[in-house]
Amino acid sequence: MNKVFLCKETARDETRVALVPADVKALVGMGYEIAAQSGAGIRVGISDEAYSSAGAKIVGTLEEGYEFCDIVVRVNKPDDIGGIRENTLHVSSFDVFSEKEAVKEFANAGIKLISLEMMPRTTLAQKMDIQSSQASLAGYYAVLLAASKLPKIFPMMMTPSGTISPARVFIVGVGVAGLQAIATAKRLGARVEAFDTRPVCEEQVKSLGAKFVKIDLGEMGQTEQGYAKELTPEQIEIQRKGQAKVCSHSDIVITTAKVFGRKAPLLLTKGMVSQMKPGSIIVDMAVKTGGNVEGSDPDREVLLDNGVRIIGGDRLERFVPKDASDMFSGNIFALLEHFWDAGNKAFNLNTEDEIIKGCLIASDKKVIHPSLSDLQ
């Protein structure tokens, strides 16, 4: 495997590209052959000429690219898999738990499937982890989005007409997105509070100059992968009551609690939102997976009767496509570089490697990932 095909994204709202010319040039230098579909980088401002200058062959159609390659790279899963040859390795983001029928299609067609979301959360695999790279940008943009809708400024300002108090921002969930949201809100001059069920996050929040909201939920912790452990119904109720007090005096609330493979936890109920100030903004970054906020909508902004505005913040990294593409491409490059066998001049799909074990979903006409045993 050494022939890579870069696809043009087909989703209307997708702005990113899976490989940028700088990484194409480096891969070609290693020994990979690259084909790029014409127009693949147009939404990011990358021309076909830029890919050609980096050493890529430009092809006009998916069919030409599929015929050329043994590795396909793209940002999102394809609309259909027609034309992808058997034993081709397909690499993209792929929510395998909500797209089980698509996973079976790949397996039945004999296409090897790597889901980048399933990349192990280890130090070695960190440079290949799109969850972290894209979530960081999404957290940044969530703050800018909220700021653009808020009817007041973020920083404290002393003027001859009086003093303007700083905006109050509450971040719920201190993962990668949450930490970047905290840092961005602080840079803009807001007074920032944050909460996470993992006590270990308190130090990280304070290091960014924000206040950690303490809510006693009893014994808590995190999984081996670094995610928050699932709460009991009793703990969820305690958490909501504690958060309601902070939400009531916040100008902006940003919720970031996504749980890959499961429905997002409901953190803000209608009752909690009804207690917020008119003009307040909520950004629900988990809106596509069920939502952290009752009443949020993935397709539209919701303006409530009490003047609170709820914005669905799905894949906000798409609004900064240049940097999002650079980072996504860096993740793909790291994967292709790590498993490059210089002696054989080929990608080594070593199924005994811990990284491959974590992200390889289908191979040899079977679904092989242990978390999808119901498809085996």
Concise structural overview:
Helices cover 31% and strands 17% of the residues.
What keyword list fits this structure?
Rossmann fold; globular; 376 residues; alpha/beta
What is the assigned CATH homologous superfamily of the largest domain? NAD(P)-binding Rossmann-like Domain
> Which second-level CATH architecture of the largest domain applies?
3-Layer(aba) Sandwich
CATH class of the largest domain: Alpha Beta
Order of SSEs: EHEHEHEEHEHEEEHEHEHEHEEEHEEHEE
Number of individual domains: 2
Structural class estimated from helices and strands: alpha/beta
- Are there runs of 5+ residues with pLDDT below 50, and where? none
This entry's quaternary arrangement is: single chain
Task: Tally the beta strands.
Answer: 19
Biggest beta sheet summary? 8 strands, mixed
Strand order of the largest sheet: 3-2-1-4-5-6-18-19
Q: Mean pLDDT across all residues, rounded? A: 93
Q: State which percent range the strand residues make up.
A: 15-25%
Cα shape: globular
CATH topology-level fold name of the largest domain: Rossmann fold
